[in-house]
Design brief:
Blueprint lengths: L14 E4 L20 H13 L2 H4 L3 E3 L25 H11 L3 E7 L15 H11 L3 E5 L6 H17 L5 E4 L1 H5 L7 H7 L2 E3 L8 H13 L1 H4 L8 E3 L3 E2 L8 H13 L4 E3 L8 H7 L2 H7 L8 E6 L2 E7 L5 E7 L7 E6 L12 E8 L3 E7 L3 E6 L4 E5 L1
Parallel strand pairs: 1-2, 1-9, 2-3, 3-4, 4-5, 5-6, 6-7, 8-9
Antiparallel strand pairs: 10-11, 11-12, 12-17, 13-16, 14-15, 14-17
Helix pairs in contact: 1-3, 4-5, 10-12
Length: 391
């Protein structure tokens, strides 16, 4: 069986919408039908994605996370959706999602139970893969709770990868493998990329600036290990959920998440309520210039170049000898601050040699003109904000 590296999927970071973070494990549809993890929720989100420009912007997956299942498997040992919340079953939902030009993602777990206590896939990898394929599922997010040992965890991730490919259906494989390994041992990213299309490295993203900041700090700290392995077919997942359009981030912090997830070549899966989203959040999430950086076909992940007090300078090599450059101001007090750096820093001195044009992408699109190799650039950045440039 072909491995994930050869399955032809995720040539660029996958994009879509995910219920986890915004809707968590809401199962009481009687008390709160609009916030319940149900067939209705995914149908309504699919309608919005097709009608309001999300699909056309590149967000193609609509993903079910934990808590979709019935408490037990059926008589034939197969996973089944909760019959009250998903009365038509997953196959019917997949057909509806496909009719909108979208793809359906689903969730399971490598262990005996999911993180929320529903049936896991341990000892059922082939059966569950066949079930997902028969339903028309296009992506599997495979969590790592309730595994007895690291050996069992690793074996489960390998077996599910092989089982998915054996079905003959193209199913993107999203793993949590390194996240569960890291407290005990250094993950073997070369092996993980063999089996997975993207892999989670860090804690759940929360709807807060402290969460976004901790993810960026972790990524910079570990960039020597993780940046080199990312590329077409396999991506580092800093926890893909974009929480833009929710409650916890200011405008500048929302700009920072969008800019930095593009720099990190991260999967872009929104977790918000598309039925109630501000025009500003929609503009940011659908920004074609930022998405083009995230989806750049060269497929190289960006990295932190320097850190100076509260400022961080990041770059990402792009196709056509271009670079994306992010200037992040982590200061949480005072007003906008200026950061000045020499263009010789960029691209090992090659990005602006002998000259380059600079376009600001965020927080607003602006042409900065042409600069010579020996020029310095001065960028003013709001507290907790980011200025994203294309050089």
């Amino acid at each position: 069986a072909a491995l994930a590296l050869d399955n032809g999927l995720a040539r660029t970071p996958p994009m879509g919408w995910l219920h986890w973070e915004r809707f968590l494990c809401g199962t009481d549809c009687a008390a709160d039908p609009r916030r319940c993890v149900s067939e209705q929720l995914f149908v309504e989100m699919a309608d919005r994605m097709a009608a309001e420009g999300w699909r056309d912007a590149g967000y193609e997956f609509i993903c079910i996370d934990d808590c979709w299942m019935a408490p037990t498997r059926d008589k034939r040992g197969r996973l089944q959706a909760d019959p009250k919340r998903f009365p038509g079953g997953i196959r019917k939902l997949a057909d509806y999602v496909h009719s909108k030009g979208l793809k359906l993602g689903i969730y399971s777990d490598v262990g005996t139970k999911t993180c929320a206590g529903f049936p896991g896939s341990y000892n059922h990898y082939d059966l569950d893969a066949q079930t997902f394929a028969s339903w028309g599922v296009d992506l599997l997010k495979f969590d790592g709770c309730n595994s007895d040992s690291l050996e069992q965890l690793a074996e489960g991730y390998r077996l599910m990868s092989l089982a998915l490919n054996k079905t003959g259906r193209s199913i993107v494989y999203s793993c949590e493998w390194p996240f569960y390994l890291r407290p005990v041992q250094q993950p073997n990213y070369t092996e993980i990329k063999q089996y997975c299309n993207h892999w989670r490295n860090f804690y759940d993203v929360y709807d807060s600036w402290s969460s976004i900041k901790s993810i960026l700090d972790w990524t910079a700290l570990h960039q020597d290990t993780i940046v080199k392995i990312a590329g077409p077919g396999g991506w580092n997942d800093p926890d893909m959920a974009l929480v833009i359009g929710n409650f916890g981030l200011s405008w500048d912090q929302s700009v920072t998440q969008m800019a930095m997830w593009a720099i990190m070549a991260a999967p872009l899966f929104m977790s918000n309520d598309l039925r109630h989203i501000s025009p500003e959040a929609k503009w940011l999430l659908q920004n074609k210039e930022v998405i083009a950086i995230n989806q750049d076909p060269l497929g190289k992940q960006g990295y932190q170049l320097s850190k100076d007090k509260n400022f961080q300078l990041w770059e990402r090599p792009l196709s056509g000898r271009a670079y994306a450059v992010a200037v992040l101001n982590q200061q949480e007090i005072g007003g906008p601050q200026k950061f000045t750096f020499s263009l010789t820093f960029l691209g090992n001195g090659l990005a602006c040699n002998p000259a380059c044009s600079i376009q600001q992408v965020l927080p607003a699109s602006r042409d900065w003109g042409v600069y010579s190799w020996i020029s310095s650039l001065s960028v003013e950045v709001n507290p907790t904000g980011t200025v994203l440039l294309k050089v």
